[in-house]
Amino acid sequence: MGYDKAMNKKCELHTEVLVLGSGPSGFAAAYDAAKNGADVLLVEQCGDVGGISTSGLMSHWTGSCGSPLFAQILRRSAQKNEGAYKDRITNIIDPEKLKTLYLEMLDEVGCRIMLYTFAVDAICDGDSVRGASVVSKSGQYDIHAAITVDATGDGDIAARAGAEYILGRESDHKMQPATLMFKVGGVDTDRAVFLGSFESTYDTPKGELQALAKRHIPYPAGHILTYRTTLPGIVTCNMTNAVEIDGTRAEDLTKATAACRRQMEDIVRYLRAYVPGYENCFVISSASLIGIRETRHFKGRYTLTQQDILDAKAFDDYVVKDAYFNFDVHNITGAGLDETGVQKQFPQQNGYTIPYRCLLPEAKENLLLCGRNISGTHIAHSNFRAMPICVGIGEAAGTAAALAVSQKKRLQDVPAELIRRRIGI
Q: Any idea what the CATH number is for the domain that residue 387 is in?
């Protein structure tokens, strides 16, 4: 048996801005940091850029944000659509087209990318983060960076750097359930029913569809969420459900994936038997990345609250504006909407802002939180975790990182007004 000594040798790389994770927030951070002149290295554990929006087979961009980069993604995605959706701006995602678009955009701004690479530890000098250790088939690397952006979703490197956090909701540390998205083909989309929220209902001669799902799809699944795609006859299903899952544990990720895959056959049987237009449907693809909605909530220099969102609070140091969604809390103990969630009856229609301080972990230097791991409460997080808002957060993080490098400033000394001006908001 051969032995490769190079595999045991730890190598070093250097960059100005290191972005860990390439979901919507990480992609946005890497893109904007590079666009603003920084040397950027983006590290991603999957084989594609995009995280949940691509490898996670996400159906659509839900919610909205006043982000120029998000508007650009929608516009350029429309140019890649085919058939009826050609050149039509829509929130529907074609994951295959989006994978390619992300790569094209990162190439345009000169961002370096390392796929199939896991970030495993933080490189620290006291409370100052100096980069991260990563591992891949090529071996182990220490990547030294002036600024590190943690866009891993779970804040893996921020946690390893010792940043303070709460796991899950404040009262008992339980977290929203996990989901494996999948697509079905063979759907008569002219007759098909599309229910886009837990509070959406549809009566049929056999009964109301949400009630039938609860009755005929085994626990902890038991709801119907179906979404159009840009392709004829194909529908995306957000219907698998795994509860009591800690997305920071590989054992739980494995358990959730197995549970959700087992549920897919029961869901297809339900669709065929009860949902108009799905009589002949069949699974054609499923996500290669399980959807984890909630894990760590970090303690930043400000913690965004439920009331801040309801009040549409305008922060002096805002770096994200016109963020809009609802309190999308999936039932922590089963299917459907949690009793604390509010979708159709969400009262605040004006959007809100997110302050720069939410991206700055308390007592840590040279580190930015990015995406759903920014500083916010359990309920606030159920709103800002929406992907368009995560793009806006990433846009701010990447811009702030590039400004800190170019002006040789500490992150906390970069003015929010300058970040906004560079973004164009």
A: 3.50.50.60
Give the number of other CB atoms < 10 A from CB of residue 132: 27
pLDDT at site 108 = 98
H-type alpha helices, 197-302:
209-216, 250-274
Cα separation of 4 and 137, whole Å? 11
Q: Is 8's pLDDT higher than 90? A: no
The one-letter amino acid code at 88 reads R
> How many structural domains is the chain composed of?
2
CB-CB contact of 101 with 22 (8 Å): no
Task: Output the CA torsion 146→151→155→159 (10° steps).
Answer: -10
* DSSP-based three-state secondary structure for 17: strand
Assign 2 a pLDDT band (cuts: 50, 70, 90): very low
Query: How confident is the model over 61-82, as a mean pLDDT?
Result: 97
CB atoms within 10 A of CB 329: 22
CA distance 373 to 385: 8
Distance between CA atoms of residues 174 and 176, nearest Å = 7
Do 88 and 78 touch, CB atoms closer than 8 A?
Answer: yes
Evaluate the CA torsion angle 243, 246, 252, 257 in order and state its sign.
Answer: positive
- pLDDT band for position 83 (50/70/90)? confident
How far is it, in rounded angstroms, from Cα 194 to Cα 224?
Answer: 9
Q: Summarize pLDDT for 290-302 with one digit per residue, the tens.
A: 999 999 999 999 9
SS3 label, residue 138: coil
Provide mean pLDDT across the span 253-278.
Answer: 98
Strand partners, 237: 182, 226
Percentage of residues in the chain with pLDDT exceeding 90? 96
Q: Take residue 338 and report the two structure tokens written for it.
A: 């949690």
Judge contact between 10 and 141, C-beta under 8 A.
yes
Residue 83 corresponds to which tokens in the numbers above? Answer: 């058939």
Structural domain of 238: 182-286
Do residues 15 and 36 share a domain? yes
Would the pLDDT of 9 be above 80?
A: no
